[in-house]
Amino acid sequence: MCGIVAYIGKKEAFPILIKGLSRLEYRGYDSAGIALLDSGELNLYKKQGKVANLVEFTNGKNIHGNVGIGHTRWATHGEPNDVNAHPHYSMDKRIAVIHNGIIENYDTIREELIKRGYVFKSQTDTEALVHLIDDIQKTEKVELIEAVRHALQSVIGAYALVVISKDHPNQLIAARKSSPLVVGIGEDNSEFYLASDATPIVEYTNQVVYLNDEEIAVVDVNEGLRITNIANQEKTPYIQELELHLEALEKGGYEHFMMKEIFEQPRSIHDCFRGRLNAAEGFVQLGGLKDYEKRLLNAKRIVFVACGTSWHACQVAEYLIEDLARINVEVEYASEFRYRNPIISEKDVVIAVSQSGETADTLAALELAKARGASIFGICNVVGSSISRITDAGSYTHAGPEIGVASTKAFTAQVTVLTLLALRLAYKKETLSNSRFRSLLTELEAIPEKVKRVLDKNELIKEIAAHYKDSANALYLGRGSSFPVALEGALKLKEISYIHAEGYPAAEMKHGPIALIDEDMPVFVIATKGTSYEKVVSNIQEVKARKGKIIAIVTEGDTQVKEMADHVIEIPATDEHLVPLIATIPLQILSYHIALMRGCNVDQPRNLAKSVTVE
Ligand code: G6P
User: Fold this and answer.
1) Which residues line ligand 1 (CB under 6 A)?
2) In the chain, which residues have pLDDT < 50?
3) What is the average pLDDT value for the chain, to the nearest integer?
4) CA neighbor of 451 nearest in space, from 581, 590, 274, 258
5) Structure pTM?
6) What domains appear along the chain, each with residue ranges and CATH number?
């Protein structure tokens, strides 16, 4: 949450910062602001709302400078307004700071500083930090870097921050703890970029350093990059080559990133299993987990920790791994797990699933599991992210950058990796017959083609969406691994269209939600052929008897449900275990069209952020 970007070098910083902020806007869009050094002055421009508001506000202003910092905010402390927007100045306007994270002891720091004469303008925790740095510098008469270090020693909480000072026009100081920060090394080692992720950096350089927790980086146009930690030990920067391509960050002709990402799924699912699956040879493997396979096979149980959509992917994995590989699986909300004093031992394997690899609760859950002796693995999309770096091993989902705040292609990529994992474990444990194993591999290889066929139904799905765009509520039902698909369908609708939606196991409907059903209630049912088909058909009848509207996702050629439903969307037949990879797609498309018809911002829904780096 919150995106930060900074530049120092020979170029004009302003356009670099604005473009960087637009790329980071998925991290929060409550306000945006920048600070630039120009002819000895530290100038600050900030505005409530999206980056576009900041651009409008700065239009016609003569903004220059080769050193600057920028911030796009997801509000935690203090409502979204101009004053609470970052950057925050020191009282003498000598120093400015941008910050992502939460300073938990800010209140104590703030009170102490108020006693010492500091006047606070905002309600943010960050302002306490900038005054603290300023105070330490003045009272201890130390260099800025030492003041930053001392300030961070007394701070409790999470931070990625960048400090700019008019006394040090040749340098920027950055630090991280639990919130991500990347340093891009530009030309001649005298030009630097700092950002929450690599997206603002990719078009300028592919040489990057990911800061570790409690590291402080000084980027200096004359002296280059120097990294120390908050205990003042020297660290050697580990320079990595970025494998990110600019076109992946653009809309590529689509009106919205969400639609682009929905339509990318045949490719992203394919990229996800490329090199890991070969049905003809009966081969399936996750390279990243190869050396740790024994731990998985011998695990007493596998515990998945995740949040949001990623948690739904783990729910699918529970069905797959328990049924195919016969290993006990538990799926936990990371936020609940970490505060529950869970029973975890060395015999457990804890796997975090996270698109961003930065979700604060998921990271903390992993740290707890590690401290209790469990092996910890990660399944992440963002390469180089915090989770991928703290885990013993893991697998990337290779979905490419996901920019729409509502997760789409990352979900299907997660389910694909988890399916590969289930199949690999089943193979090693010999829990499947050879023919069943081979048939699952073949079916998995065919998924991208089948997803394409669902995407071809975009117009039909749009027509269906038009019928339900004014609904106040919606219910989503599924059984088996289609239950998490129902949860995900409901989440997609509520987060982007603001229609209240709930997902339920179809049979649970009778234990409460059935009371809500009337002629105004659309009920989206995943009713594909499989073990529970007949049971789901009965559930559909129960809804119809109460005049509810049925929109059913059915297997191609289905006739029974077609007769009962108000609308059906046919999807290609596949193995029951792989249905989530296909059945999710029409639900994503439905939510997209409904949200658009209601005039919602599908890529940046209100109050949300894509990367939740605060708990
Ligand atoms: C936020 C995003 C969701 C995402 C969840 C978990 O709520 O808006 O799309 O599923 O965080 O994020 P992660 O990056 O850990 O998958």
Assistant:
1) 307-310, 354-356, 359, 362, 405, 407, 608, 610-612
2) none
3) 95
4) 581
5) 0.85
6) 3-100+157-248 (3.60.20.10), 253-445 (3.40.50.10490), 456-602 (3.40.50.10490)
